[in-house]
Design brief:
- This protein is of the alpha/beta class and 371 residues long.
- It is 29% helix and 13% strand.
- It has 13 helices and 13 strands.
- It has helices at residues 8-14, 57-65, 127-130, 158-172, 185-190, 196-205, 207-211, 222-231, 259-262, 265-271, 300-306, 338-349, 361-370; strands at residues 41-44, 70-71, 74-77, 83-85, 108-112, 115-119, 177-178, 181-182, 214-218, 238-243, 277-279, 310-311, 355-358.
- The chain has a 4-stranded parallel sheet. Strands 9-10-11-12 form a 4-stranded parallel sheet, covered by helices on one side.
- Helix 2 (57-65) runs parallel beside helix 4 (158-172).
- The longest helix has 15 residues, at 158-172.
- The chain is globular, with a radius of gyration of 20 Å.
Length: 371
């Protein structure tokens, strides 16, 4: 266990203690935890969302071109039961729906997973209506360059995304995995739009996803247990990932269970009965101190590996705003800091993670290749 408890100062030394304006030196061979995966994978979080508006085919195209092993679609449902790719069912921040007067009356307030939200929701639109909207950059204040693409791209269906990835895989002569997340499963069940069986049917309907690697993820537990029972051992290309939020929070389908309890050795053994991997936040692996610097490494990777679970943390982002203070430069909060992002990823690679989500797969690939 001692090898896991690295201080922030030790991690800086591990990275060469170089200023962030220059690329960090290769990580020396120390004695960190080792991944249990055959190879560490780069996951394009919502595509390459640092470079294009998230969850657009353009974002996935950049992610694949930049070396992502997997690309991630978040799935929500339309009113007519079609799976579409959006981070949330509320789409006021990721589309131009507010500028469509014909949909002004659709603006409403709902309670989703205990949170009161006002806006426009995918489940109030049929697909044909949703297709009249155009995607917008969600983090416009930080990713100003991405706003140049506002209005250029439609909201893709999951089927369109599968077909696009299959075509890219064929053209590039390499397999590209999909890692779909089922969003707000209990909520969608409650309004008569469950997504689990539709997702499995869609995967089965396409030749590519019958054999390509697929990892289904969720912050909830019940739907993953259900999928585990449905899949059995007859779908070896499909794995399950239990996402985990902050330790004091709980899955939307089980108020008696906290993610903190799920991250204990006993909790992880329970997760391993139905999932293949966990997806915690990066800060559950290396927390931050009060001044925003890296704290000692937590035992989560070690404990998960002991339970037979891979660890796929989220999310590495290249702007100073998202980086630990150890890796920020003087460019300002919204500035893109490539060297700092690469250095931060490499600090986490040293803990033995098996894959990682990044908004910029090119930087993830650079960090991994150097590591």
């Amino acid at each position: 266990m001692k090898a896991l408890v690295l201080s922030s100062s030790a991690l800086v030394l591990l990275l060469g203690a170089l200023p962030m304006s220059t690329p960090a030196a290769p990580v020396p061979a120390v004695a960190p935890a080792a991944p249990i995966a055959a190879r560490v994978l780069v996951i394009g979080h919502r595509g390459a969302s640092a470079l294009r508006p998230e969850h657009t085919l353009a974002s996935y195209a950049v992610a694949i071109a930049d070396g992502a092993d997997f690309v991630e679609p978040d799935l929500v449902s339309t009113k007519d039961g079609v799976l579409v790719v959006r981070h949330e069912n509320e789409i006021g921040g990721t589309t131009d729906v507010a500028s469509h007067p014909e949909f002004a009356a659709r603006r409403t307030t709902k309670v989703v997973d205990g949170e009161t939200i006002t806006g426009w929701f995918t489940e109030d639109f049929i697909l044909a209506e949703l297709k009249t909207l155009r995607a917008r950059e969600r983090l416009a204040d930080i990713r100003k360059a991405n706003t140049a693409y506002d209005g250029q791209f439609t909201v893709p269906t999951f089927e369109e995304m599968i077909e696009f990835v299959a075509a890219e895989a064929s053209a590039r002569h390499r397999v590209i995995g999909l890692i779909p997340e089922i969003k707000h499963a209990t909520y969608f069940h409650g309004i008569g739009l469950p997504m689990e069986d539709k997702l499995l049917a869609m995967l089965a309907a396409h030749a590519y996803t019958r054999t390509a690697p697929v990892e289904i993820q969720s912050f909830e537990v019940g739907n993953l247990r259900y999928l585990h029972g449905k899949l059995g051992k007859s779908h070896p290309n499909i794995r399950l990932l239990q996402l985990m939020d902050a330790p004091d929070k709980h899955p939307a389908d089980d108020a008696s269970l906290t993610y903190g309890a799920m991250m204990t050795p006993a909790g992880l053994k329970t997760v391993a009965a139905y999932a293949d991997a966990i997806g915690p936040s990066t800060r559950s692996i290396i927390p931050l101190t009060k001044d925003g610097r890296l704290a000692p490494v937590a035992p989560l990777v070690h404990d998960a590996h002991a339970a037979g679970l891979e660890v796929h943390p989220y999310t590495f982002r290249p702007e100073n705003h998202f980086l630990a203070a150890d890796f920020r430069d003087a460019g300002g909060d919204a500035a893109r800091n490539e060297a700092g992002s690469v250095a931060e990823i490499r600090a986490y690679l040293a803990t033995g993670i098996d894959a990682f989500f990044t908004d910029d797969p090119a930087l993830g690939r650079k960090a991994l290749d150097a590591h």
